[in-house]
Request: fold
Amino acid sequence: MTPSSPALPLQHFASDNYAGMCPNAARWFMEAQTSGHEPAYGEDRWTQQVSEGLRELFQTDCDVYFVFNGTAANSLALASLCQSYHSVICSPVAHIETDECGGPEFFSNGSKLLVGESESASARLGKLTPDAVETLVTKRHDIHYPKPKVVSLTQATELGTVYSIEEVRAIAAIAKRRHLKVHMDGARFANAVATLGCHPSDITWRAGVDVLCFGGTKNGLPVGEAVVFFDRALSEDFAWRVKQAGQLASKMRFISAPWLGLLENDTWLANARHANAMAARLHAAIREVPGVELLHAPQANAVFARLPQPAVSALHAKGWRFYQFIAGGGCRFMCSWDTRPESVDAFAADIRQACAA
Reply:
C-alpha cells in the first residue's frame, strides 16, 4: 500500500533531517562551486562573508566556527567550557544526554552530565528551570562531586517547546550567580525565534547565553552548523579543537557558502516559520480525531501525540515514517522547511482513517 498523498515525491514526518537543501542554499552552494580556486580551511571569502553576516544578524562581535553536524557542535562547544572534572546541567531529554553517544563526555575528557528533575510541569515539556539548576548546583560542594560548570539549554526543546526570553534570562541569572557558563543547543534555534517573534540577540547573548550552536542542517542546509561564541574569551584554542576532532573542512566554502542563502532576505526565518506553520496545520487537523491524544500544543515544528498501536502499525504499513522513541512512547511528527500542505493533509487523512479502523 502507498500513502494517500499527491503525485509529488512522498514527504515524511520522522525528522527535519529528511528534507533536502533549500533553493537559496543550493544557489550559493553552486556559486561556491563555480567561483574557481579558493583558499582552504576557512580562509576563503565565503566563510569570511558568512561570519560577518552572522555578526550582523546577532548585532555583536562574536567568534564563528563551522562544523559538520550538531553532535560535533555541542560536544566541542561544551569541551571548550569544561575541564574533565566539571559537569554540565541539562534536561533529561536534552540531545546531549540522550542522542549524542557520549560525545560531550568524550571530547571534554570526562565531564559529567547532570540531568534536572523530570516531574515538574516545565520538565514534562522538556525544559530546565532555575530551581532545577539551583538544586543541582547546591546539592554538594565536596571534592568528590563533579563541579558544575555549564548550563545547557535546548532551544527549541526536544519536545517541540520553546523557552521564552524571560525563562532564558532567569536561568542565565542563576548560572551567572553560581559562576556557570550558558550553552544553547540551537539545532532548531530558527524555529524558536520564529515562534517568539523576537530578535535573535534577545534570546541569546542579551539574555545571558555564552555560546550558541546554531543549526543549519534542519533549516535547509545540506550540512553544517555554526558555533557562535558571544563570549569570545571562551573560544580560545577552539580552532585546534575543531581540527583535532576531524571537523575542520578543507573545502570549507561548501559548508559556509550555503549559509549565505539562509541569511539572504532572512530565508532562515522564513523556512522556520513555514515548518512551524505546517506543524500547526497538522495539529489542527488531528486534534479532534478519536483515539488521538495530543501531548501538548506545538510551539515549533513538531507535533507529539499518542495513537493506538494498531493505528501506528497501519500508518507504517502505508509507508509513513515517524519516530516513537521520544516523549515517553508518543509519536513525534516533525515538519520541515519544505513540508507541503498537501503532505500534511494526506498524512492527517491517513491518521483519521487508521484511528477509525
Observations:
- Residues 306 and 328 are 10 Å apart (CA to CA).
- The mean pLDDT is 95.
- The radius of gyration is 21 Å.
- The longest strand covers residues 147-154.
